[in-house]
Amino acid sequence: MKGILGKDLLGLEQLTAEQINVVLDTATPLKEISLRQIKKVPTLRGMTIVNLFFEASTRTRISFEFAEKRLSADTVNVASTGSSVSKGETLVDTARNLEAMKIDMVVIRHPASGAAQFLAERIESNVINAGDGMHEHPTQGLLDLLTLRDRFGDLKGRRICIVGDVLHSRVARSNIWGLTKLGAEVAVCGPRSLLPNAIEEMGVKVFQRIEEAIEWAEALNILRLQLERMEAGYIPSQREYNRVFGVTRERLERAPRELLILHPGPMNRGVEIDSDVADGPHSVILDQVTNGVAIRMAVLYLLSGGRPEQAIVAKAGVV
Amino acid sequence: MSKKPTIVLDARAVDRTLRRMADQILELNDGTDRLIIVGILRRGVQLADRIVKIIETQEGVTVPRGALDITLYRDDLQTVGPRPVVGATHLPWTIDGQRVVIVDDVLYTGRTIRAALDELADFGRPARIALAVLIDRGGRELPIHADIVGKRIDVVEGQRVDVFVEDLDGKEGVFVADPAEPPSGDT
Q1: pLDDT bracket for residue B47 (50, 70, 90)
Q2: How confident is residue A280, by pLDDT bands cut at 50, 70 and 90?
Q3: B180 in a structural domain
Q4: Is residue A31 part of a domain?
Q5: In chain B, where does DSSP find H-type helix?
Q6: Do B78 and A307 touch (CB under 8 A)?
Q7: CA triplet B70, B72, B73: central angle to 5 degrees?
Q8: Is the peptide bond before A229 cis (omega within 30 degrees of 0)?
Q9: How far, CA to CA in Å, does B86 sit from each of A27, A71, A110, B93?
Q10: Is the CB of residue B66 less than 8 Å from the CB of residue B40?
Q11: Within a domain: A28
């Protein structure tokens, strides 16, 4: 029997609005666990989860690890450096070896788009995509949705603009899928060189100027300018980017309404976002981080268990 | 052919039973001192609210009312799988040294109460934990018994006990129904 999410969480593209809402509804009461003195429930006791990170990550890895530990799972972290991956072992071989040690779930972060799906099709364990290349970062998308829903209630008709390097951003893609499925109006804003061709086909508006985006939107999700890609010549300079697309207090003060400010982190202060804005009263950036743990707990819970063949006396609904 | 549900308690009988249970709770705990009433989601919470209100009118004291969602403490995740609806646990006070009374609608296998005791232990060490249930239908699978019982009934395995409360169901009463009847209440 597969749970409501199926075997794996690979992206928000495959999920229905109903499935997304179940994750958000499950995450909401789980927030309380992180406020307890003993921040732990026994739900995933005896389950083993491997966090397989082939790419640098602080927030996501720690957030997953907290979520796993607060649900009492046993966790192992594997990074590409310091493991057999650096000796040239393939992804599938690494995962199969881990599976031979009897694990239950794999959380994978990988620089190649599609890596999570590739793995999911080849191993029996549940696979959770923690970011694959420029494809998707579903738990980030879900935590952004939860943060917006906490403030707005229903997202139907709400106007959210994603600002910055949409081209390289898996966060942007997961956000666009999730937001449009929940009925929000979505726009993107950034230099043409950093917007994918035909992005309009995903059902989003495009703003060339940040001032227009600020005038239209009720919330801005500001993406990190991926500085490691600067040398490819996508933008002239950081300073130039800040001058044209930076979200500054002055720009926000001219908006017809107060805008909610989101950023998936890590931030380049003074480039895509000014400190005044990041630390300002309408910033929910740290709420996003708090919600991240609850969302990941919800995903782990919803993907777990449900193996009736192991049941001796599984009388559904009777406790 | 399924029969019509048999009525066990009507609305007035539920009310009368809850009054008696409130009295017994006060007796068992020597009054309202250090008393915390904790309902188990969902109908246990509604019943706990009612008991708190009865105590309020009788004693002029509002006893704290907590809520426990035991979903994450169930012992059947590996077999039955995750439940799509997790409720909110609400227990913002210290329970160390307090007298906690767990309230639930139906006591059956005892597994819900086992889970609730585990969850309470994660919040602290009460001086005493008692259990008050509206209906005890027998059929225990664990060594658990209730300190206060509204009504004891014998129910054939496979039959269902439905508890309806005004706030959730718009009507009130306890019924025994055949499994073919549309589901509610007894979780």
Answers
A1: very high
A2: very high
A3: no
A4: yes
A5: 11-28, 43-59, 111-121, 166-169
A6: yes
A7: 65
A8: no
A9: 8, 14, 31, 21
A10: no
A11: yes
Residues A132 and A146 in one domain: no
Residue B127, amino acid:
A
Cα radius of gyration (chain A):
20
Q: What angle do CA B112, A306, B45 make, to 5 degrees?
A: 25
Q: Residue B183, preceding bond cis, omega within 30 degrees?
A: no
Closest CB to B73 among A4, A42, A317: A42
Residue B108 domain flag:
yes
Phi, psi at residue A88, to the nearest 5°? 100, 10
Assign B184 a pLDDT band (cuts: 50, 70, 90).
low
CB A49 within 8 A of CB A106: yes
In a 3-state reduction of DSSP, which class is residue A185? strand
Q: Collapsing DSSP states into helix, strand and coil, what is residue B106?
A: strand
Contact A307 B89 (CB under 8 A): no
In this structure, the strands spanning A219-222 and B148-152 are: unpaired
What is the total residue count of chain B? 187
Residue B101's identity, in one-letter code, is V
CATH number for the domain spanning A98: value is 3.40.50.1370
CA distance B52 to B31: 13
DSSP 8-state symbol, A100: H
Tokens of A103: 């694990």
CATH number of the domain within which B56 lies: 3.40.50.2020
The DSSP secondary structure of A215-247, one letter per residue, reads HH-SEEEEPPP-GGGGGGTSSS-HHHHHHHH-B
Phi-psi region of B165 (alpha: psi -120 to 50; beta: other; left: phi over 0): beta
Half-sphere exposure of A3 (CA within 13 A, CB side): 27
pTM of the model: 0.89
- Residues of B in Cβ contact (< 8 Å) with A29: 69, 86-89
Which among B141, B74, B139, B64 is positioned nearest to B103, based on CA atoms?
B64
Q: Is A267 found in the same domain as A128?
A: no
Q: Is the pLDDT of residue B146 over 50?
A: yes
CA distance A190 to chain B (A): 39
Give A129-173 pLDDT, tens digit per residue: 999 999 999 999 999 999 999 999 999 999 999 999 999 999 999
Q: Are A204 and A191 in contact (CB under 8 A)?
A: no
pLDDT reported for residue A234: 84
Query: Which tokens sit at B134?
Result: 């509206």
Q: What is the mean pLDDT of residues A246-258?
A: 94
Position A271 scores a pLDDT of 93
Q: Taking CB atoms and an 8 Å cutoff, what residues of chain B touch A301?
A: 72, 82, 86
